[in-house]
């Protein structure tokens, strides 16, 4: 990235960091706070980057940020689609192309989800890749930041044999495992029909057909199936035991995203278990590094710190 481009990139990041209200990003605002916008360490936390790397980016000392890093910053800064594209271009990168599965989470959706901090929320793209989650999601399912971005996919967790599958806690669906699995495959088949030119989606499907007999069987079955929407599930948590929750999948019109929420009836023992996890967990929402990177080698322990 040329010097002028690096300067423009750093200036954009600083300006948009100053613009974003901490409360809209899920942070508690205290009386002693001076700056109206995000602190640098808060942006680093939201984007899954080291504070030093964010500083070097803003000071134009870091070169050639990856598409993964730019995507993470765009989500953390709650940029519009036009602003996101501007940030990509200032980094010397082509913005995400139309016709591929989008991982962009609109600012309004992030603000809405950040205000529902008591509820475990995960936002998924059309191929069931996790692209945003809050602290309650981490408290219930474990911190997704420790899983490489390419593995943060529900279909991989169900049918694969990698880190996503190993990290997924035991979850029992009231509808039974087959119905749940078939609905996820149906969603992927629908995504393929709408994004036929998406190479990463094609690789995901070919990979799962090769490693999972169940996935290959469901994929070959022509019987129509309803998409995954709502369910009642029991989550086996390592600290509080079984939690029975209602799982609701909310479709985000125009963004091709799914917002997944887990709730329990007020006053129930399951709600009490969620309260325990809430007290133990943080209050900050997470905008992780891009869920569809070209290179996941920069992600270590949930923090991205590429070489300058």
TrEMBL record:
Residues 283-308 are annotated as: Disordered. Residues 33-84 form the HTH cro/C1-type domain. InterPro entries: Cro/C1-type_HTH, Lambda_DNA-bd_dom_sf, MLTR_LBD. This is Helix-turn-helix transcriptional regulator. CDD domains: HTH_XRE. SMART domains: HTH_XRE. It comes from Streptomyces purpurascens. PANTHER family: BLL4672 PROTEIN, BLL4672 PROTEIN-RELATED. It comes from the Bacteria.
């Amino acid at each position: 990235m040329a010097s002028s481009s690096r300067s423009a990139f750093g200036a954009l990041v600083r300006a948009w960091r100053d613009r974003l209200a901490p409360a809209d990003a899920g942070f508690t605002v205290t009386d002693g706070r001076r700056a109206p916008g995000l602190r640098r360490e808060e942006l680093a936390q939201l984007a899954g980057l080291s504070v030093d790397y964010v500083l070097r980016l803003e000071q134009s000392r870091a070169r050639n940020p990856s598409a993964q890093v730019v995507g993470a910053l765009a989500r953390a800064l709650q940029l519009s689609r036009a602003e996101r594209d501007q940030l990509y271009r200032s980094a010397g990168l082509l913005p995400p192309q139309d016709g591929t599965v989008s991982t962009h989470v609109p600012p309004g959706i992030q603000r809405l989800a950040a205000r529902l901090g008591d509820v475990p929320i995960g936002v998924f793209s059309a191929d069931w890749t996790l692209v945003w989650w809050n602290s309650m999601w981490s408290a219930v399912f474990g911190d997704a930041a420790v899983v490489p971005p390419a593995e943060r996919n529900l279909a991989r967790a169900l049918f694969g044999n990698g880190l996503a599958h190993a990290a997924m806690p035991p979850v029992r669906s009231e509808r039974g495992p087959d119905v749940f699995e078939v609905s996820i495959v149906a969603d992927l088949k629908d995504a393929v029909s709408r994004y036929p030119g998406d190479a990463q989606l094609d690789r995901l499907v070919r990979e799962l057909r090769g490693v999972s007999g169940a996935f290959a069987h469901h994929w070959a079955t022509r019987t129509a199936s309803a998409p995954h929407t709502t369910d009642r599930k029991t989550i086996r948590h390592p600290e509080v035991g079984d939690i029975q929750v209602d799982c609701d999948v909310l479709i985000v019109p125009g963004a091709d995203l799914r917002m997944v929420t887990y709730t329990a009836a007020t006053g129930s023992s399951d709600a009490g278990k969620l309260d325990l996890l809430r007290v133990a967990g943080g209050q900050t929402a997470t905008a992780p590094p891009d869920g569809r990177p070209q290179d996941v080698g920069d992600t270590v322990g949930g923090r991205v710190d590429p070489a300058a």
